[in-house]
Amino acid sequence: MAHLRPLENHEVDQELRDMFAHYEKTRGFCPNSVKTMARRPNISKTFGKLNQVILYEGTVPEELKMLVALASSLASGCRYCQSHMTNLSSIYKASDEKIAAIWEFETSDLFSDAERAAIKVGLKAGTLPNDVTAEDFDELKQHFDEGQIVEIVATIALFGYLNRWNDTMATQLEELPTQVTERAVGHKGWEAGKHG
Fold first, then answer.
1. Which residues form the Carboxymuconolactone decarboxylase-like domain (predicted)?
2. pTM score > 0.70 for this model?
3. Model confidence pLDDT, tens digit, residues 88-121
C-alpha cells in the first residue's frame, strides 16, 4: 500500500491538470508517482519537463531509451518503474519477446550491438555501487555520438530518481502498466510486490 495517496484533479492547479491530461492521452493513465509529487507542485511540474526533455527529445530512438530505463529499473529492483518501462517499451514498439529477453540482451539476436552497449550501461549504472567502466563507454562510443551518450546517461539518471521515489513511496501501480507487464513478463515470474 502506498505511503501517500496520489492527488486527484480537483486537488491541483490547472497546469498540473493539463499535465495529468497529457499523460492520460499519451499513456492511457496518469502515473501515481506524478500525482503524489503534486503535493509540491513545482517538483511535479519540473519533473514533467525533465522527463519530456530526456525521454522524448534528441536522436536516440525512444524504444531504446525505454529499454535502457527498463534495464536500469530491473537492476535497482523498483517494480513500479519496471512495470512502467515495460508499458512504455511496448508503446514504443518493443515486442513482448524483446522485453522478456532483456536479461539475455547480450546473447539474444533480438538486440543490435548498439542496443547491447546501451542496455549494458543501463544495467551496470542501476546497480549499487555503479559498475560502469571505461570499457563500457568505449563500446558506447562505437555506436553513439557524445550527445547521444548524454541522452542515454540522462535516461539512466532520471530513473535513478524515479526508482528511489517509487520504491520509497511504495507507489501504487496503475492497472494498464500492470496488465502490459503481466502480458509481457508475467510468465517469467514478475510480480508487483509492494506496488500491487
1. 42-121
2. yes
3. 999 999 999 999 999 999 999 999 999 999 999 9
Q: From CA 31, how far away is CA 66, in angstroms rounded?
A: 16
Q: How is residue 98 written as a grid cell?
A: 524483446
pLDDT at 128 over 90: no
**Alpha-carbon torsion (80, 26, 7, 13), positive or negative:** positive
Grid cell of 18 as nine digits: 493539463
Per-residue CA distances from 157 to 24, 51, 116, 149, 182 (Å): 24, 11, 18, 12, 26
Q: Give the Cα separation of 2 and 54 in Å (integer).
A: 27
Length of the chain: 196
Contact call for residues 114 and 148 (beta carbons, < 8 A): no
